[in-house]
Amino acid sequence: MTRSRARSVWTPPDDIILPNGIRVICDPVAHVDSAAIGVWVRVGTRDEPPAQRGVAHFVEHTSFRRTRHRSASKISRDFENRGAYANAYTTKEETCYYVRTLSEHTAEVLDTLLDVVLWPTFEKDDVEKERSIITEEIRSYEDEPEEHIFDLGEMQLFPRHPIGSPIVGTIDDVRSMKHQHVREFHARHYHAGSITIAISGRCDPTDLFSRIEKLTKGVRKKQPPTRRSKPTMRAASHIELLRPSQQAHLLWQVPTVGCRHDDRFALQVLNVVLGDGMSSRLNVRLRESTGLTYSVYSQLQLFADCGIMAIYAGVDEQNISKAERGIRRVLQEIADGGITPAEHRRALAQLRSGKLMSLESLTARMTMLGKGVMEQSRPEDPRETIEAFESVTRDDVARMAQLYCRPEAWSTCTMRPSAERS
């Protein structure tokens, strides 16, 4: 009964490629009065030239400053006078500009959003203003040890590769950024072949396809995809540093396969058992049983051709050794013995319910469509994803655990408290 009800809230979206080469995906949801719109661009940190780290994020920020048709104040008024909320973010492999709006304003809001994405001007003065803002953004990340240690960990795993670079760049990177760099990066990567527009909510697909085709007239023609180099996996390493903080921060990481590999579903099941939720082994061992930490979890980040499984824990400095022994023991136990039937059932239930509940969020639905194209070249079908999770066996997870849960394979980054920065 539950599954029948869940299936009824998802039907395959309307998916076309416009004559100009832009892909548009429309997911009509009749029972709502709003829409989530996302413009996805297949470009991110890993596409940046070595001398221009942070430029993809700089483009995203500065696009809202000025376009051929709107000033920054007009952009914000055109969104907010209609009650719409717009934002954007950059990842290692894609950039997303998105807006939530009432469906009655979809046409006008879409016009403004596409203007921001397609026709920014990147004036020198605007780049200078954004330089200061991004510098403060970097400082805010560095003031958050839990955020900062993940950046450090990626640099540790992928040195000399753009995946290891912080998305926002460094303060020195931002200081050296020229407005020509920002303009040229946008011109090179924002073309019809790299753009997907995804819409979920109350909408008329036929009307939207026609409207978007008119709004994107004149967009740069499709170009060959950017060639991305695959990072070289390196041996486990261990670093320790000092940062002003109230507690120590531990990050353990191991490289994995990427989001296009068949093992990704078994890896996600393993991650749930390892450190996702109150019943996870890490939470039971390090928090509930021993009281060593308030926050401990594992997470999985999958790129196109590689990935990272990570464990984070925040502990009192005096408990670093105990926490490390606890993490090592959990990893070794799961590598040697796999997972229990109860853990298997719980992980599948969590993954299934999380996917089904996300269908009640328009933003999550839109993200499944756009990110699915970025990662798999087609919109994600949640029913297929759930079937893939349910086909994962305990033996599949045991194989993943034997591959990735040997403690000696994990790199570690330890941040100890200090009154001064190291």
Q: Could you say which structural class the secondary elements and strand pairing correspond to? A: alpha+beta
Strand order of the largest sheet: 1-2-6-3-5-4
Tell me the β content. 15-25%
What fold name goes in the CATH topology slot of the largest domain? Cytochrome Bc1 Complex, Chain A, domain 1
Task: Work out the helicity level.
Answer: 40-55%
CATH superfamily membership of the largest domain, which one? Metalloenzyme, LuxS/M16 peptidase-like
CATH class of the largest domain: Alpha Beta
How would you describe the overall organization of this protein?
There is one protein chain. This protein is of the alpha+beta class and 422 residues long. It has 2 domains: 13-215, Metalloenzyme, LuxS/M16 peptidase-like (Cytochrome Bc1 Complex, Chain A, domain 1); 238-417, Metalloenzyme, LuxS/M16 peptidase-like (Cytochrome Bc1 Complex, Chain A, domain 1). 44% of the residues lie in helices and 19% in strands. It contains 16 helices and 11 strands. It has helices at 2-7, 55-62, 72-80, 106-118, 124-142, 145-157, 171-176, 179-189, 205-215, 264-275, 281-288, 320-337, 341-358, 362-376, 382-390, 394-404; strands at residues 14-17, 23-28, 34-41, 85-90, 95-102, 195-201, 238-243, 248-256, 293-302, 307-315, 411-417. The chain has a 6-stranded mixed beta sheet, with helices on both faces. It has a 5-stranded mixed beta sheet with strand order 7-11-8-10-9, with helices on both faces. Helix 10 packs across helix 16 and helix 13 runs antiparallel to helix 15 (382-390). The longest helix has 19 residues, at 124-142. It is globular. The protein starts with a helix and ends in a 5-residue tail after the last strand. 43% of the residues are buried. Mean pLDDT is 95; it is low at 1-7.
